[in-house]
Amino acid sequence: MSSKKNRLNSVNTTQDYFFLQNGGEAAEIIRNFHWSDTSVGAMENWPESLKNTLATMLSSKFPMFLWWGEDLIQFYNDSYRPSLGNEGKHPKAMGQKASDCWPEIWYFIYPLISKVLTTGESVWYDDLLLPIYRNGKMEDVYWTFSYSPIRDDERHIKGVLVVCNETTEKVSYNQKLKESKEELEFAINAAEFGTFDLNPLTNKFSANTRLKNWFGLKAEDEILLDNALAAIADPDRKRVVDAINRALQYESGGKYDIEYTIINPRTKKQRTVHALGKAWFDEHKNVYRFNGTLQDISAHKKAAEELLKSRQLTDLTIKSMGLGLFNVDFKDNSIDYSPEFSLLLSGKIKHKLTRRDFLKYVHPDDLHLRAEAIETGMETGTFYYTPRVIWDDGSIHRIAVSAARMINAEGKPAAFSGTVADITEQEENRVALQLAESRLVQTKLEADRLFRNVTDSSPTGLWLSDMEGTLTYFNKTLIDFTGLSEEVLLSGGWSSIIVEEDLKTAITSYLEAIARKGHFDVLFRAKKHTGETIWCRAAGDPFYDAEGQYAGYAGFCMDMDEIISGRKALAESEQRISLMIEQSPVAICLFTGTNMKIEIANDMMIGYWGKDKSVIGQPMEEAVPELKGQPFMKILEQVYRTGETYYGRAEPAELKVNDVISTYYFDFTYSPIRNAKGEIYGIMDIAIDVTDRVIADKKLEETRMALAGAIELAELATWKLDLHANTFFCSTRFKHWLGLENHSSTKEELFSLIAESHRQKVISSIEHALIPGASAFYDYEFPISSKLTGQVRIIHANAQLIYGKDGLPECLSGTAQDVTKERELQEELKFKVKERTAELHAANTELEINNQELQQFAYIASHDLQEPVRKISIFTEMLKESLDKNPDKVKMYIDKIITSTKRMKNLIKDVLGYSRLSSNSKTFEPVDLNLIMHDIVNDFDLTIEQKSALVLFEGLPIIEAIPLQMSQLFGNLIGNALKYSKADVAPNISIRSEEVPLAIVNELSLNNAQQYVKVEVIDNGIGFNQIHAEQIFNIFQRLHGKDEFAGTGIGLAMCRRILQNHNGIITANSQEGAGTTFTVIIPVKQIYN
């Protein structure tokens, strides 16, 4: 049985996996994990894409984790580790399946993971509440995160990279900030403060109503400072102006604290105020804001003046004496004392205490001092001792008691009086001084020993020299390195270890540094005691004695071989970092130096800027000049200066992309990058373009406002039914309809106002909406009656079911519309429609009879005309063959008769065909236009051959149509193309088709419930003037003489009639000498009524 604990052992420690370098604790866990037990497999078989992604993730200071493979095996970095809690999922989450690690939120995150894996689209959430199990319990945690696809070496999506940041503290902070602001506003109002805010650039300021009333100012938003200063009493005005000007100077620290008197110019009331304020300065030390508060201290001022007089006398005595006073009467052993006496003995001012009470505060170990002082005092008449006392708070203090015996008129001791002084500080100073003197001696003794111990334990060679440069000290590391004794080194032997080629350079650099008392730093090769020659670096600086006088040089000498080797490794590491940044699913760049030079930037970041790779190496302001005047450079400077990471959320940026300056919005992080010394040398910028999200938020807000306006404009009422409290809430309009006194009522009261015939149906509809799995939308129409007037209205109510955080239905929220008038009009309209339908039916019946008669007449008339024409044609042909007189002339007349009769016959035939097209008997069936075209080409094969014509078509659709009419339609169009071809150019005719977009269907006012196809017949013939494009579809209309081109002028009219029969349209587009295009738009399927 394998377990996580069993799999965590040193199975991979012998391998040097580059992607685990500098990866911290997470990298070690990965290195020591039995990955062969998972679907990821052994580490040596991992694809390069997985390794590179892990290298990026583990070296990132941004919280990240990765799900990989079909089991979504989990990896994460050290930055993500704190989010797992102290007693949560770490370290077992490493290598765990995502579904096993996150059961509490799997219902939410799995659809997101599936979307990324199947579509390749990233997802993003900001400040999303996702409770997780950690620290032994479920905790509400807020996250800002993105899911991005990661592809394997075959470019298939194999994993999901999660870049996330826990924002629980930020969300909590924002809530606390809001509460603090509200508390501050309450405190200001409760304290009756006046507030002001001065703009030093305009010399105008804004203030709250209280301050304006005090100064007798108007209620404008901003007031000139001079107008306010005019209300200050004359003796105080200059002092206030000076204090303001001083606060506006950067050197003052911006502090403003002053008391002065104001005189209301309207009421003449005097008021003493205490003003506190602060001036704010930008990075250039220019003041941009000055704000603060005013407190009315008139009453306090008067009381303070009276109190001050009393206190001055008391304080004068206390300050002049600094003592506690006491008097002991020998007669009754009573004691009188000043408050300071009890304060010095007990730490508190106490009254009515006896001598015995005070003895309790004397330290038990010092009671003998008191006894000895009293014994001596009885002989000498004076008492003095310095006992310790223990105050009520447990603290120990030392006091000095000094007293003298008082003699009465009889010359006998009657009392003794004295003083008590706190000498704790003096005693502590005396003891501290003695201790310091003792320690100083010991310190001097230990200093030399400690110096040598510290320097000898250093892994780096250390040395000292005197003012002339003579070496006076080498530590043990340097002695061991050379293999020479300290005496040899001090006598100049150190130069013997330097390779001869580097000796002159090293000595010259050292002597030059000593001559100028500057920094010394040189690289040279040296021979170790082992015989090995290595690169060394020696460096030093002058040091100074306690009086600041130059005393010599102190320096080091270190092995540089490892560092030089490390430079190569560093270069490789930098290359890997560049690759990581380039392949990152988010925009990343690195700025270095105070001028923010662009050191590294991936294509995504450069794309955000609208630039190319040439910006690498340029300062940011030069590379992206449009950022001047925007806040980003100042923020970068602030992060570089303070070392505090800056997080930007949906902040706008004006950027020039594709030569157009537009506003984009970004979430970004500016993080300081430090070197090994902890010094900031650059800033890492990670950014995500959230423009679409911001625009969507704005549009959502606009939509909400538009919805509110639409509700009002549409005279809708709004309502909500609280399912927990069974309470109904409604807008003013709904309240009026129901005749309610308030905007809320019980559910039972609401149901009682619904017509009884519909009441149960309404209740059932609401209950149905609450059934799990049912539609969450409620839509019903029913009558209600006013509780006050009894007026009945028909309302149309709809709502959506709203769920709470627990996933249970919380309320129904929706709108209602008074449709009473509409329903009354509908009933009246139904009656009118029924009446007009009957009339229309009768008229249609009559029209159908008339049409049948007209068709019969046209058919008969044309049929009867054809017969004599046929006979005339036969006889004239016979006459032509038998007549011998003047044969040329006779032949000419006979030709004309034949031509005329043929034209008449064609005309009658076409009229008959046109008439038949008006028939309502339409039998539609599937028609393959490719087959229709094949038949038409076969019919015209002789003409096509004679004119060397080319007719091309392919992939024409199958539509519902009348086959014969489709043959007539395209036969006429191809026939026209052949007929009206250029004399010296072979006809080139192409037929092509495509679907018609819905936008074009709507533009042409066609039925948008149908699907249409467009078929174009394009030729290279003689063409015509476009002004005749409509005329050519009229019956008997011709653009050319009958002798030039044969025809009856009916063919295109038939085409339009055929398209009308099929609910389609036909148009023509042409240019003289450049050919013609006929466009047919026809439904794919017909709608049958």
Automatic annotation (TrEMBL):
Signal peptide: none annotated. InterPro entries: HATPase_C_sf (IPR036890), HATPase_dom (IPR003594), His_kinase_dom (IPR005467), HisK_dim/P_dom (IPR003661), HisK_dim/P_sf (IPR036097), PAC (IPR001610), PAS (IPR000014), PAS-assoc_C (IPR000700). Residues 447-518 form the PAS domain. Residues 860-1086 form the Histidine kinase domain. It comes from the Bacteria. This is histidine kinase. Residues 256-309, 383-435, 520-572, 649-702, 778-831 form the PAC domain. It catalyses: ATP + protein L-histidine = ADP + protein N-phospho-L-histidine.
